[in-house]
Amino acid sequence: MGSVYVHFPYCLAKCPYCDFTSYASPRDRIDHAGYADAVLAELRGRARSLAGRARELRVATVFFGGGTPSLWEPAELGRVLEGVRATFSCAPELEVTVECNPTSLDAARAQALRDVGVGRLSIGSQSLDAEELRFLGRLHDPAGALAAVRAALGVSGLRVSTDLIFGLPGQAPETAAAQATALADLGLQHVSAYQLTIEAGTRFGELAKVGRLPLADDGRVAEAFLAVDEALVARGFEHYEISNFARPGERARHNEGYWRGDEYLGLGCGAVGALERDDGRAATRYRNPVSPADYMLRATAFGDAPTTGLDGEGLSLEVESLPPETRLKERIMLGLRLAEGFDLDAAAAEVGAEGFTPERERAIARSVARGRLMREGTRLSIPRAAWLFTDDTAARLF
User: Fold this and answer.
1) For the CA atoms of 304, 306, 308, 313, what is the dihedral angle to 10 degrees?
2) Does a structural domain hold residue 314?
3) Distance from the CA of 165 to the CA of which of 180, 197, 231, 273 falls in 20 to 30 A?
4) CA-to-CA distance for 87 and 281, rounded, in angstroms?
5) Distance from first CA to last CA of the chain, Å, rounded?
6) Structural domain includes residue 62
7) How far is the CA of 333 from the CAs of 39, 118, 260, 336, in angstroms?
8) 383, 372 in Cβ contact below 8 A?
9) pLDDT in tens for each of the 398 residues of the chain?
10) Number of domain units in the chain
11) CA pseudo-torsion sign 268, 277, 256, 335
């Protein structure tokens, strides 16, 4: 197992574009200790389901996502982190990341997170334009975003990443590029730049359905993507994945594990996990209850249950079996997001599927001829000029 993901479902306000499991709550209404107790109970149950594998598994990364994990009292977050360390064999250079919002991150909070073992903060700046931030439903202003990044950078031993959203209605490509440059010039190590996407079930999704949400056209979105790429590469960042840029040696190792198909343990309300079966080929993916109250009740009982299976019986509400071919398709979809691409033969061998089937060979040849795909032996990758078509190209290889 490569990583552990811990979900914290609370935030100060629900953003209109967010489709993650999250609930708006004032900080003082959150049961910080009770939620940590529930996550630790789930951890006990999951470790029991792994039986002898638990101490043999090497965890390289731990990621606290949300929601807004920077709202969580650092001592309680630290308790969960210590539980993970005590349960599994962790890499000496364990990468521990916490997602933060500018409204819940200052120098004192950044230092407190560092003190409990966190080494990396991912800050949701999203924009440095006041009107864009209001459109996105964010609670901070441009000055608040910059102050949060500076506060994190001021703590010794913390690596800092920030998120930027481009492709907003009315946004000029040069505006997106200028924001990326301003953030890079603060001295942070990593930038994630995402196109605004409209998801069903969100406030933006409802508005778009009835034609009440202004949207940028595809051409402007593509121009913004290229402008951000040019700006960050000029500042010494490597564009190593479609949405991610890093200074040398500063890639997000947790996310790299997802893109390379590593198994991961998901803990917390609404968390998703994917664990390999004993043969290492088939896998099980599960999802926890999305209601905090339901999750905490079930997780507590799950932690005390005498036996559990990989599917988390009694806790996981959604369980999906992932046969080898399904796992290979996911490897294709995610592996092609990396600038370096992936080795199809190696990925197929790992999951016990056939890589270069006759049908897939033909699809690969067509995509190569169109300039949408590159092939070097058994390694496949997307040309930089065709990155915006990655999802379509990957789907053609299924």
Assistant:
1) -60
2) no
3) 273
4) 24
5) 26
6) yes
7) 31, 30, 10, 6
8) yes
9) 689 999 999 999 999 999 999 999 999 999 999 999 999 999 999 998 887 676 677 899 999 999 999 999 999 999 999 999 999 999 999 999 999 999 999 999 999 999 999 999 999 999 999 999 999 999 999 999 999 999 999 999 999 999 999 999 999 999 999 999 999 999 999 999 999 999 999 999 999 999 999 999 999 999 999 999 999 999 999 999 999 999 999 999 999 999 999 999 999 999 999 988 766 677 899 999 999 999 999 999 999 887 666 667 789 888 999 999 999 999 999 999 999 999 999 999 999 999 999 999 999 999 999 999 999 999 999 999 899 999 999 999 98
10) 2
11) negative
SS3 track for 50-105: HCCHHHHCEEEEEEEEECCHHHCCHHHHHHHHHHHHHHCEEEEEEEEEEEECHHHC
Per residue in 199-227, is it b (16+ CB within 10 Å) or e — as a string? eeebebbeebeeeebebbeeebbbbbbbb
Q: Length of the chain, please? A: 398
Q: What's the rounded Cα separation, in Å, for the pair 352 and 374? A: 24
The number of C-alpha atoms within 13 Å of 280 and in the hemisphere containing its C-beta is 9
CA distance 162 to 154: 15
Do 153 and 59 reside in the same domain of the chain?
A: yes
Distances (CA, A) of 97 to 64, 116, 131, 240, 288: 6, 12, 29, 19, 21
